[in-house]
Amino acid sequence: MKIAVNMLQPEKLKTKTIIMGVLNNFENLNKSEIPPGFEKQLEILLDSKNSDFKGKLNEIMVLYSSMGIKTKHPYRLILVGLGDPQDLFLESIREGCGTAGNLCNDKNIDSIGIIIPAGRITRLPRKEELFLVSSAVVEGLILGAYRFNKYKSGKDKSDFKFENIIVYARSGSDIPSMRKGINYADVSSEITAVARDLSNTPSNDLTPGELVKRARSIARKYGLKIKVITGDSLEQNQMSGIIAVGKGSSNPPSMIILEYVPKRARNPKPVVFVGKAVTFDSGGISLKPGANMALMKHDMSGGAAVIASLAGLAKLGAPVHAVGLIPAVENLPSGTATRPGDVITSKTGKSIEILNTDAEGRLILADALAYANRYEPGIVVDVATLTGACVVALGTHTAGLMGNNEKLLDAIVKLSEQTGERVWKLPLWKPYRNEMTGDTADIKNVSGREGGAITAAAFLLEFAEKYKWAHIDIAGMAWTEKPAPYKPKGATGFSARLLMALGNNIGEQKLKL
Ligand code: BES
Ligand code: MG
Ligand code: ZN
After folding, report:
1. Is residue 119 scored above 90 in pLDDT?
2. Taking a C-beta distance cutoff of 8 angstroms, is the pair 360, 344 a contact?
3. Does the annotation count 288 as an active-site position?
4. Which of 287, 358, 364, 480 is the pocket-test mutation for ligand 1 (most atoms within 8 Å of CB)?
C-alpha cells in the first residue's frame, strides 16, 4: 500500500476514483476543485430542489463521468457526507471516510484520491490540525475497509487492501504536517487491525499458548523484546492470580512481557501498559449463562490492544521507553478449577478471597500491576474488558476511566477525544475501596452488584499504589454488534490507538505527567 500527499490540481488528479468529503448542503464547496467531467452533475446536486444528496454525515453517492473513461481524468466520484460544519471534528471525518472505505471494500476499489473540505476544524489547535485531520482521513478509509475473513472459504476469504491512497492538499497547506499525519495513520490503522485480528480469532485457535506465539512473531516483526513467564516460573514470581484463574484449563497460562526500547528514549521512567488477556471467559465454576457466552472470545481485547500499541510505537520509532504486561489465561470450570471461597496470596502479601470465579480479570491484572513495580514506572495504564457493570453504566459508546492521578486521567480523556476512542471518568473514592474488605482474607474479589465497574477498579487500586495509574474498562467497547462506519461487526481494536497516542505524546514530550 502506498499513501501519499499531493497538491490538489483538479486537472492532474491521478486516480480513476476520487472521494470527496462534502459538508451539509455543499457548504465550503469550492467549484474550482470539482474534478473535470463532473461539473454538470454537481451543478444539479447543488441545486437544493433537485438534490437527493445533502451531505449528511455518512450519506454516500457515486457519480460516473463518461469523460473519465476516454481521458486520463477520473471516471468515478464518490461523494460522502461529513455533516454539519459546526459538528465537524476528527470523529466525523473518520466516520465519513470509514463509510467510503466500506464502499471501496465492497466494490473492490483499491486506488483512490481523496479531497476533504476546506476550512478550519473547530476546537483543534492550528498547528496540529492538518496532522490530525489527515491521519483521521487515512484511519477512516483503512479501518472502514477492514474485514475478518480468515475463517470464510472461497471468494469470501479474499482480503481487500488499498493499493494507493492519495490525500489532496490545497495550496498553502502545511504539507509536512500532512505527511506526518498519513504516516502516523498508516501505522495506527495497521496496528488496530492487528488488535482486531487477535480479538476476532476464536478461542480454540487463540489459547494462551497461541497468544504467546503470536506475541513472539509480532515482537520479531516490529522489533520488540519479549519475555514469557510460564509454568513453574509463574510460581517463582508469585503470580497467584494467573495460576488460580488458569488452573481450570488444560491450556496453561502465561505472563507476556513486551518491551520497546527506542534508540533515544526521552522519558526517564518507562510507560507501562497492562492488558487483560482472558482468551475465553466461561466464568469458571461461577459459570456464565449460555446466551452470548461465545462473545467471551473477545475477553483478551485489552491484551491485544497493548500488544498492538507497542508494535505501533516501535514502527513509528517513537522516542518512548514502553513496557507491555499481558497476563494470558483461559477461564474454564473443571475438577482442577478454583472454587468460590478459595483464598490466594498475592506477591504484595495481600490475601484475596475469590468469592466469584467470574471476576477473574482483576485477579490476573493484580499480578501484572504488582509486577509493574519493578520498572519504577512513570505511569501505568491498564485496559481490560473487566465488568458488565461498566456497560450498564456507560453503554457502548464510552469506556470507563478510573485511577489515582487526576492529571493522567484528564490527559487520557483529552487524547481519547482525538482518537475517537472515548473514555470518561468514574469516581474512585474511599467508600468504594472499603467495600472490597474481605471477611476471611484481606480483600475479596467481588462485592455487591451496585457500582460494579468502580468496585472492580477499587480492587485493582490495592495493587497500584506505588505509581501513577489509570484503568480503562473497555467491556462495552472491545467489540460491536452493530456495525459503525469504520468498525465492522466484531472486534474494534478499541484503545490500541489511544495507548499508542499516549506513548507517542509522552515520548515527544507533548505530554508531561
Ligand atoms: N469478562 C467479563 C466482563 C464482561 C462482561 C466483558 C460483558 C464484556 C461484556 C468479566 O470477567 C466478568 O465476568 N465480570 C463479572 C464481574 C462480576 C462477577 C463481579 C461481570 O461483569 O458480571
Ligand atoms: Mg469473568
Ligand atoms: Zn472476563
Report:
1. no
2. no
3. yes
4. 358
Beta-bridge partners for 353:
343, 444
**pTM check: above 0.85:** yes
Catalytic residue among 297, 362, 444, 497: 362
The CATH code of the domain that includes 15 is: 3.40.220.10
Residues 155 and 220 in one domain: no
Cα gap 282→123, rounded to integer Å? 44
Ligand 1 centre to CA of 414 (Å) is: 27
What are residue 277's DSSP bridge partners? 328
Residue range 89-98, pLDDT digits in tens = 999 999 999 9
* Ligand 1 mean position, distance from CA 302 (Å): 13
> Does 380 share its domain with 460?
yes
Domain that holds residue 125: 2-195
pLDDT (tens digit per residue) in 287-326:
999 999 999 999 999 999 999 999 999 999 999 999 999 9
331 within ligand 1 shell (Cβ under 6 A): no
Read off the pLDDT of residues 392-446 as tens digits, 9 standing for 90 and up. 999 999 999 999 999 999 999 999 999 999 999 999 999 999 999 999 999 999 9
DSSP string, 50-91: T-S----TT-EEEEE-SHHHHSSS-SEEEEEEEE-GGG--HH
C-alpha 170/C-alpha 180 separation (Å) is 16
Q: Residue 357 corresponds to which cell in the numbers above?
A: 470465579
Contact 454, 421 (CB under 8 A): no
Tell me the CA distances in angstroms from 467 to 271, 320, 463, 470, one per residue in order.
11, 18, 10, 10
The total number of structural domains in the chain stands at 2
> Is residue 466 classed as helix, strand or coil in its secondary structure?
coil
Q: Looking at the structure, do residues 401 and 282 belong to the same domain, yes or no?
A: yes
In 3D space, the residue among 495, 512, 228 whose CA is nearest the CA of residue 381 turns out to be: 495
Q: What would the grid cell of residue 99 be?
A: 463509510
| Side-chain-facing half-sphere of 64: CA atoms under 13 Å | 3
